[in-house]
Structure formats: C-alpha cells, structure tokens
Structure prediction request, 255 residues.
Amino acid sequence: MRLTRAAVLARAKAAALDGVRRLNCWGSRLTDISICRDLPNIEVITFSVNGISDLEPLHQCQNLSELYLRKNNIASLNELFYLKNLPRLRVLWLSENPCCGSDPHRYRMTVLRNLPSLQKLDNQAVTEEELSQALIDGEEITAPPARRIVENGCPESTQSSVADSTAETESDLLNFSLEETNKIREELGMKPVPRDKFSSFSHRETDCNRKKRNNVLNAILLLTKELDVDGLEVVQQTVGRRLQALQKKEQLQEE
Prediction:
C-alpha cells in the first residue's frame, strides 16, 4: 500500500507537505513511502508495524530526528546507507526486522558504526563504550542495497512485503512497548500511560475483547481503502469526535 499525499496531510493535520513535522502511520500496512521525498521538514516519523522494505525515500529528510521502523520488512542493513547523511537523526527503532539477523551484537554494532550520532537505538540508550566498540565489531556500509528486479518490473522486496505485513497476528499488533504506546497516544492528543500502569493497561482486555476489537479494526482498515478523500475526511471527523468523548471520560475518571 502506498502512502499518499492526502493521507499524510490528513494524519499530520497540515495544509502542505512542507509543513509536516510529525507523521504517525503505525500499523497502516504501508509498503511504499516514496512520498517522504517531499517532506523536507519532517522531524518525527512512526512507521512501525508495516511492510516497508526500502528506506531510500528518507534520505532527503534532513530534519529527521526520530524514526520508528519496528516490525517492517527491511531485509538488509545496507538500507542504513540512506540514513547515514541525516545530520539530526538521534533516535532509531529498527528491531524485529529481517535485517537484524540472529546476532544482536553484530546488528547493534553495525548500526552504531554507520549512525554514530544516535542517542537511542531500539529504545536503549547508546553509550560511548558502544560507539568505540562499533568501530571494531561493526561493518561499514558504503553502498546502497542491490535490488533484484522480478518479472513484472517491481523490486522483489516490495512483492513480499504485502504478505508479511498482513501476516501480523493479533498478539503482534498488541505487543508494543510503553514508548511506542505513548507516541501513538501523543499523536492522538491523549495523555501518556505512566510506566507503573503500563503492564495492566496493555493486558487489561480479555481474549474475547481483544479478538473482537481486532476483527473490527481489520474491517475498518479494509473499508478505508475503498474511500476517496472526501470519505476519509468524514471518517477523520467522526474519529476526532469519538476521541474527544473518550478523552473527556478518561479525565473524569482520573479526577
């Protein structure tokens, strides 16, 4: 699924692409993020739980400081080539991608060798000792990944990403961390979940309720694919009113 200009403007509540500073597309089944080439002022991007395999569109996002890519279809660490010249990138979440491989140490050292300005990788602070060790144990990436073209003319990685994205299980979609939970809540204008309440928050639903919610969510996602811009705006307004009502209820409960 391609991320469109209309979707970006709607999610970011911006009038133009150059006015987009933050973009949250968590769990949107995206495979094509080429629109990012037209986001020169973007600072925070949340693309976790999608089917993204190509990071080339991000190489022009010179103001990007935080990038969340957990659970995508990034097959090669050579994709880091496109992030190496982003001067402000300080936070990267890349875990649970195929490129992480079976050797966590080699993976982390390679990322830090190529992105030494990172302050946090996969929700873990980067230390000076790690940066020094990365020069020894990490692999230097000097070229972009080679993309093999299949018969229909599309990159092979894009072909597999759709199946991988839709294969997310219910437990996968619900099993995200405190930081990402609060990132999503922040984008929706909701209060963050305190660390001491996160465990009960993330597991408070019964299996039956989780299954029901997941079925409803999947149905909504499928239906939104059939809507045009006007239809999506109606959905956005309805969701906005629903969120306001829930936030008000939540505030009353806290008081």
Summary: The first helix runs from residue 5 to 12.
